[in-house]
Amino acid sequence: LVLENTGSVARDHLANERTWLAYVRTSLSIAGTGVALVQLFTISQSTALAENLFGTSLSLRHFSRPLGATTVLLALCILGVGVLRYFKVQTAMVQGQFPAARITVVVITVALAALVAITFSIVVALP
After folding, report:
1. Cα(73)–Cα(80) distance, rounded to whole angstroms?
2. pLDDT of 42
3. In contact, 35 and 79? CB cutoff 8 Å
4. Which letter does DSSP use for residue 1 in this model?
5. Around Cβ 34, how many Cβ atoms within 10 Å?
C-alpha cells in the first residue's frame, strides 16, 4: 500500500504503527507475567516441599499452570486484537474515516482486571 503524503497521511499511518507496537509491548509484558507466575509458584512449591508445609504444594501445583496458561492466552488475544485493529484502522484511514475503539478498550480492561483479581486472590488465599 503506497499513499501520497498529503496533509497528515504519513503522520496518521505512523501513529497507527505506534499503536500496533503498543499492543505488541502489552502482549509481551502480559506473556512474560504469565511465565513469571508459573515460575514463582514453582519456586514456592519447591520451598514448601523443602520446609514440609502441608497442603501448600498441592494448592500451588493446582493453580500454577492454568493461571500461567490463561495469562499467556490473554496476551495472544491482545496481540490478535492489535493486529486486527491495525488493519481495520489502516483501511478506514484510506477511506478517510477513523473507527473508535470503545468495546476493545472495555473488553481488554475487564479481562486484565479479572486476571489481576484472580491472581491476587490466589496468592493471598494460599498459606
Report:
1. 10
2. 76
3. no
4. -
5. 21
Here the cell at position 27 is 502482549
Output the pLDDT for position 53.
53
Query: Nearest Cα to 108, choosing from 87, 90, 126, 85?
Result: 85
Any residues with CB less than 8 A from the CB of 74 and at least 6 apart, and which? 30, 34, 111, 112, 115
Identity (one letter) of the amino acid at 120? F
Give the residue ranges of the chain where pLDDT is below 50.
56
Give me 40's grid cell: 514463582
Kindly give the residue spans of alpha helices, DSSP state H, lying in the chain.
Answer: 9-51, 56-94, 102-125
The pLDDT tens digits for 68-83 are 999 999 999 999 999 9
Determine how many CB atoms are found less than 10 A away from the CB of residue 46: 12
CB-neighbour burial class of residue 123 (10 A; exposed 0-12, middle 13-18, buried 19+): middle
Cα 121 from Cα 53, distance rounded (Å): 20
In angstroms, the first-to-last Cα distance of the chain is 57
